[in-house]
Amino acid sequence: MSQALDDRSESIRMIRDSAGAVAPRDGDTKRVRALRFVEPGFSRDVFAEMGALGWIGLAAPEAAGGSGLGMSEAVALTEELGAGLAPEPLIPAMLSARLLAAAEDKALLGGLLDGSKVVLTAWQEKADSIAVPGTGDAPRMFIPQAGGADAFLLPVREGNRIALVALEAAGSDLVLEKTMDGGFVGTLRADLSRGSRIADDVGAVVEQAIDEAALATAGHMLGLMEKAFELTLGYLKTRQQFGRIIGTFQSLQHRAADLKIHVSLTRAAVESAAAVLDDGATGAVRQAAVSKAKHRAVESGMYVLRQCIQLHGGIGYTDEYDVGLYLRRGMVIMNQYGAAALHRRRFMALAPEDVE
Amino acid sequence: MAVSIAPKETADLSAMEDEAFRAHVRQWIEANYPSELRNPPKRLHWDENKPWYFKLAEKGWLCPGWPRQFGGLGLAPAKQIIFTEEVERHGCARTNDHGIVMVGPLLINHGTDAQQQEFLPKILNGEHVWCQGYSEPNAGSDLAALRTEAVLDGDDYVVNGQKIWTTLASDANWCFLLVRTDKNAKKQEGISFLLVDMATPGITVKPIINLEYHDEFCEVFFDNVRVPAKNLVGTPNRGWDMAKALLSFERIYLGSPRLSAYAFARLRQLAERMGVWEEATFQDTYGRLRLDLEDLKSLYGTFVDKLRRGETLGADVSMLKVFQTELFQRITDTMLEIAGENAGLLEPMEGNRNLNPTGQYIQARPATIYGGSNEIQRNILSKNVLGLPG
Lengths: 356, 390
What we know:
The complex is a heterodimer of chains A (356) and B (390).
Chain A: H1 2-19, H2 30-34, H3 44-52, H4 71-83, H5 90-103, H6 106-113, E1 119-121, E2 140-144, E3 151-158, E4 161-168, E5 173-178, E6 184-189, E7 196-199, H7 203-238, E8 240-241, E9 244-245, H8 250-278, H9 283-312, H10 323-333, H11 340-350
Parallel strand pairs in A: 1-3
Antiparallel strand pairs in A: 2-6, 3-4, 4-7, 5-6, 8-9
Chain B: H1 18-32, H2 46-59, H3 77-89, H4 98-110, H5 113-124, E1 130-133, E2 149-153, E3 156-167, E4 174-180, E5 191-197, E6 203-208, E7 217-228, E8 232-233, H6 239-255, H7 258-274, H8 280-308, H9 318-338, H10 357-364, H11 374-385
Parallel strand pairs in B: 1-4
Antiparallel strand pairs in B: 2-3, 3-7, 4-5, 5-8, 6-7
Helix pairs in contact in B: 1-3, 3-8, 4-5, 6-9, 7-8, 7-9, 8-9, 9-10, 9-11
């Protein structure tokens, strides 16, 4: 038991260390800033590096070419990448890898896992929903960083089942919109006759994969809030007004203490949910754990991020100063894979109460 | 070790598997705890909770964390946590436990053999009921400013001054007291720890009626009270660090989700009774509180895991006290908001103690004040955890 725990914390530590290759620990945002609003909004080279490091297949089984690790490692990784503001669509790629592994599609999966091909899943048909109706002719919306995709995966309903169709990105009707953080989301109007059907029924897998993406996104939010809070603490310890370091003012100290509590609550919620998934939970227990974590990450994350702007004063409202980058990214991811209210409702519907 | 007290419990609880131990503890508590005292709305007095104290004492389970040679159970942290979880799960009232959680550990770590021999057995048999003489009228949050003075006169210290907010002092026959023994030193460096018999001439106890109309707290006056010098614990003028170490117990205890969890379950019963349970606005509020409670449990779990691994908790445990007590208040605030005119009733609604919005609301008020106010906890977090400047 404790040996297993030690191994686990060791693999998590190694994942965190390796994240430094892409998300520099010193908080250098030059790379991130240079990619803003330049299509596709991320670096293909860095995406390939993520593949080479085994991150895209982090949770995919080793037999399918993945690393066979779990959600505890995945949230540690997405936290580090959130802290480093990496714009690469790693979480959507992990989702696609999950589907391709289930479909046993070796060709597409191989290219995705090694990072040479960007495969994104076009599952979403309306805003503020994590449902996958699989409507054949419905435009697929809010595909993160879609301009960089080589291929799309589309869940398509056939009777009671959800088949999976793969489609070349080249020649597709794809419309991009800019996002607040300098990235892009795409709306795809797919011509399914151009695609190839690669699995008969991925209905259950796609639901699980979206939950994993929601939890990984909660990890990304945790990274954003940690780093923005670190910057803010640094500012409170150096900025002077009225002849004093502003961090000596008690109202600001108490605000900082509250932000610390929210960061800690989020870490506890995210890491405990990852442990629930790694213990093999299924069904309602698994979904409730994910909803609990995503809800906390959004509620506490956005509170911390906007307070970090406030505590910086005017400089926090400039594009030049880095703290705003974390708020912008938070705005983009907060409602991806389900807003706080959606997850709160789902948690309440799923989780039995422990009434004495 | 010169002192040895035979442990009462002879079964080797340490050798049991965790889940078997949990079942064993649960079964015994259910069979022996008085059902009418589960989840009491007020802190119980000694005459109400002593039957339970003596049951535990007789079983040898009074002091799960004390070493066996001092009459405790000598349980490892993981089993102590299980024990506490079961006590809380059943809603057992807190006893007059200052001897168990404060004086015992203090003497085991810092007491002389004679002090250990004299006092520990009397905690275990319930002969001594202790109270904690810390706060003073002008030394509350700023505890180190305390001025109750002890001056050496022959073999005795002579104590003069006043303590306040002394929990259940009217029940106690002994008091562990922080006193100033050096008025010229820096304020933290002139404080000593004295053990005082409450029957000593010159001590007056006056209960304070609080917002619950309850007399849980007292004022204690000391007028030329003679305390034998052998009752000083540790080194003279070095009492502050020992006092602070004992307070860390309170911060994890007060951060336990049990008060919030109990109130939350009552909130649902109240909402159903008031007919607002199905309302969307209530459901949203309820959902937020529910997730706050669940996430508090997750955070609490991370601290409990540290204890289980035998680690010492740092100053960051203050987070739990802040969040738990403020959640407890938000839950009970919501009770009043939905209770209609029942929000003004003194007694539980319809004679049903599960429908007691006012009792819960009032009980939640001091939670953000006692055990170091939440403002002090935030000071601790900002200075000791976040490193913000003075």
